[in-house]
Amino acid sequence: MILTLSCPDQRGIVAKVSAFLFERGCNILDAQQFDDQETGQFFMRVVFDADGADREALRVDFGDLAEGFKMKWTLRNRADRYRVLLLASKFDHCLADLVYRWRIGELPMDITGVVSNHPAETYAHVDLSGLSFHHLPVTKETKFEQEAELWKLIQETNTDIVVLARYMQVLSDGLSAKLQGRCINIHHSFLPGFKGAKPYHQAHARGVKLIGASAHYVTGDLDEGPIIEQDVERISHRDTPEDLVRKGRDIERRVLARALRYRLEDRVLLNGRKTVVFTD
C-alpha cells in the first residue's frame, strides 16, 4: 500500500507513523520525507506491505492518528489503477507516446478515453484500438457546451486524472478549479520563455542555447500551475526551427510521461504553488 501525507511540521510524526504500521503487522518497504523550512509543512510517502493487516481497520484507525496531526492524507492499494482521460489536439506525439507506454505496461493506468477537438482521422497512424474516442469540436460559440460535455464525460467515466497531451484549448477557471490536483498539462518552456504562436521559431530567432518543457498541474492561471517535472536539451546555432520542433517533441514526450508516472505512483504532493515530488 502507499500512504502519503502532509501536515504542519512537529516532532514525532515519523515515529508515530512508523509505530502505527508496525503495531498492525505492516512492513515498511520505502519511506521518503521532506520538511519545508519555509512553510513549516511536513510531507511523507510510505510504501508498505499490509498483508497481515485488516486494511479497512487500518484506514479507519489512521484517520484518528491523522486528525491529531491535522494531516491531509491518502492511502491506496498499489494494485488499484488510476483512471486517466487523455486530451489531445493536432499535435499527437505525446498522445501516441502515452498510449504506447500504457500498452507495454510502463504506465499502470486505465485509460477511460481519448478526447480531441479534432476528428478521429487526425490520429489515423496512432494505435487507438480498444479506446473510446470522443470528438468535441471547439469554437468560440461552443466552448461552454464543450466544457460541459467534457466535465460530464469525466464524471461518467469516474476519471481520476486528466492529461492534456498537447491539448491546445484553454480550460476555463471553473473547470480548472474542479480538476485541482487532477489535471496535468505539458507546456513548452524555454530560457527565456516564449508564449504565443510558433514558440520554436521565436526561440530560434533569439538564438537560445537551451530548449525545454514543463509538466504542471492546471490552474486558472494559464501555464503557471505547480510544476511536477521539467527537462532541457542543449542546441546550437546550427539548429533550424524544424530541428527545435523535432527536439522539442522528444523533450515533451519524456517530461509528460515522467510526470504522469510520478502521479500514478502517488509521488506528487501539492505544496501551495509548488509540488513535492518523491522521485524514485
Provide the structure class.
alpha/beta
Main pleated-sheet profile: 7 strands, mixed
Q: How many separate helices? A: 7
Mean pLDDT score: 92
Number of strands: 13
Distance between the termini: 16 Å
Oligomer: single chain
Q: Tell me the helix content.
A: 25-40%
The fraction of residues assigned to DSSP E strands is 25-35%
How are the strands of the largest sheet arranged? 7-6-5-8-9-10-11
Radius of gyration, CA atoms, in whole angstroms:
21 Å
Shape: globular
- Tell me the series of helices and strands, N- to C-terminal: EHEEHEEHEEHEHEHEEHEE
Low-confidence spans: none
How would the blueprint of this fold be written?
Layout: E1 2-8, H1 13-23, E2 27-36, E3 41-49, H2 55-69, E4 72-76, E5 82-88, H3 93-103, E6 109-116, E7 133-135, H4 143-156, E8 161-164, H5 173-178, E9 183-190, H6 199-206, E10 210-217, E11 227-234, H7 241-264, E12 268-271, E13 274-277
Parallel strand pairs: 5-6, 5-8, 6-7, 8-9
Antiparallel strand pairs: 1-3, 1-4, 2-3, 9-10, 10-11, 12-13
List keywords for this structure.
alpha/beta; about 280 residues; 7 helices; seven-stranded mixed beta sheet
Question: What do these coordinates show?
Answer:
The protein has 280 residues and is α/β, with parallel strands linked by helices. It has helices spanning 13-23, 55-69, 93-103, 143-156, 173-178, 199-206, 241-264; strands spanning 2-8, 27-36, 41-49, 72-76, 82-88, 109-116, 133-135, 161-164, 183-190, 210-217, 227-234, 268-271, 274-277. It has a 7-stranded mixed β-sheet, with helices on one face. The two termini are 16 Å apart.
